[in-house]
């Protein structure tokens, strides 16, 4: 049975996907590269470097320039997330985390972002997590299962006793590869391979969730 939950951050707990988009867009504009909101959708859950390479669409730059571009994007991103507050929590996220804690179950963060700690602190939910796996935790990123396996290990639970909550295709694949139960948040086109697909965490109660998982997983 499920004893722990591992939450992706961007797009599950808060909508930082918008800030990532604005930061990448600003960089793309400066480079004279077209970049749309729709193209940004494909970058959900994709680490910083791979995101940059996708944005560059085959244009090549020396390694030092790539580093500078990544730093620049991150500077913009940090600028945008300075404004994040508890109001930016997506509906239902805090309530579910609190229910998980109250029920004596465990919660971990499993985000590819190097800014994950800063974001959960600004959201005011850092103390609701028993463990944090972030962009510094592992080398192989989603869709490899490493980050979620690391989070489960920090919780002291096997993957079979953890449910991963994800909004990105790469994240759903990572969780499936690790043998986790997977809850997909968002449209079927993106997270349809998850065991359970929900439009959002709004109004999702722990008891109902555990019941739905036991029939669908
Ligand atoms: C998450 C986001 C991605 C982002 C990645 C790395 O997976 O969904 O959009 O590129 O984290 O984030 P970072 O803050 O380290 O650049
Ligand atoms: Mg995400």
Taking all Cα atoms into account, the compactness measure Rg is: 17 Å
Count every beta strand, where a strand is a DSSP E run of 2 or more residues.
6
Spatial order of the strands forming the largest sheet: 3-2-1-4-5-6
Strand content: 5-15%
Number of helices: 10
Distance between the termini: 10 Å
What compounds sit in this structure?
6-O-phosphono-alpha-D-glucopyranose, magnesium ion
Biggest sheet: strands, sense, closure?
Answer: 6 strands, parallel
Q: Which secondary-structure class do the elements indicate?
A: alpha/beta
Shape, per Cα inertia axes: globular
Q: Tell me the helix content.
A: 40-55%
Low-confidence stretches: none
Listing every helix as H and every strand as E from the N terminus to the C terminus, the arrangement reads: EHHHHHEHEHEHEHEH
Average pLDDT across residues? 96
Structure description:
The chain has 217 residues and is α/β, with parallel strands linked by helices. The protein is 46% helix and 12% strand. The protein contains ten helices and six strands, in the order βαααααβαβαβαβαβα. The chain has a six-stranded parallel β-sheet, with helices on both faces. α1 packs across α4. The model has no long low-confidence stretch (mean pLDDT 96). The structure holds 6-O-phosphono-alpha-D-glucopyranose and magnesium ion.
């Amino acid at each position: 049975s499920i004893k722990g939950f591992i939450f992706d951050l961007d797009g599950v707990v808060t909508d930082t996907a918008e800030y990532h988009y604005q930061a990448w867009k600003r960089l793309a504009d400066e480079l004279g590269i077209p970049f749309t909101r729709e193209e940004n959708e494909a970058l959900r859950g994709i680490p910083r470097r791979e995101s940059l390479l996708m944005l560059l669409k085959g244009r090549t730059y020396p390694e030092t320039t790539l580093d500078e571009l990544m730093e620049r994007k991150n500077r913009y991103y940090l600028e945008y997330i300075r404004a994040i507050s508890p109001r930016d929590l997506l509906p239902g996220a805090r309530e579910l985390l609190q229910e998980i804690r109250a029920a004596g179950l465990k919660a971990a963060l499993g985000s590819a972002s190097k800014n994950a700690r800063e974001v959960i602190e600004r959201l005011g939910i850092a103390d609701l997590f028993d463990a944090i796996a972030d962009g510094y935790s592992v080398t192989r990123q989603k869709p490899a299962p490493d980050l979620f396996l690391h989070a489960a290990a920090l919780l002291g639970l096997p993957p079979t006793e953890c449910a991963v909550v994800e909004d990105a295709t790469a994240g759903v694949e990572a969780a499936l590869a690790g043998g986790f139960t997977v809850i997909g948040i968002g449209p079927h086109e993106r997270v349809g391979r998850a065991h359970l697909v929900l439009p959002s965490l709004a109004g999702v109660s722990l008891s109902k969730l555990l019941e739905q998982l036991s029939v669908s997983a």
